[in-house]
């Protein structure tokens, strides 16, 4: 399976606009090239706790 997926990715990298994966002739998934402009959303600084309350502490505390 991994070899097949790698071959499909190589086809997209080689210039195909998209590869449609089918199961018994029915489309199930697409492999498309990633957009160069899309980047993960990030903030430069955490929100101001005086304005919104403390939003970061519950996330940053140890869960163990």
Describe the model.
The protein has a two-stranded antiparallel sheet with strand order 1-2. The chain has a domain of 34 residues. It is of the alpha+beta class. A hairpin with a 2-residue loop joins β1 and β2.
Give the number of helices.
3
Our estimate of the beta-strand percent is 15-25%
* SSE string, helices as H and strands as E: HEEHH
**Oligomer, anyone?**
single chain
Rg value: 21 Å
Largest sheet: 2 strands, antiparallel
Helix content percent band: 25-40%
**Spatial order of strands in the largest sheet:** 1-2
Query: What's the average pLDDT?
Result: 78
Q: Kindly report how far apart the N and C termini lie.
A: 37 Å
Report the structural category.
alpha+beta
Low-confidence stretches: none
Number of strands: 2
Q: How would the global form be characterised? A: elongated
């Amino acid at each position: 399976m991994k070899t097949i997926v790698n071959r499909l990715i190589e086809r997209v990298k080689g210039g195909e606009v998209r590869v449609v994966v089918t199961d018994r002739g029915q489309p199930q998934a697409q492999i498309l090239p990633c957009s160069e402009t899309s980047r993960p959303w990030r903030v430069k600084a955490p929100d101001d706790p005086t304005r919104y309350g403390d939003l970061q502490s519950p996330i940053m505390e140890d869960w163990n």
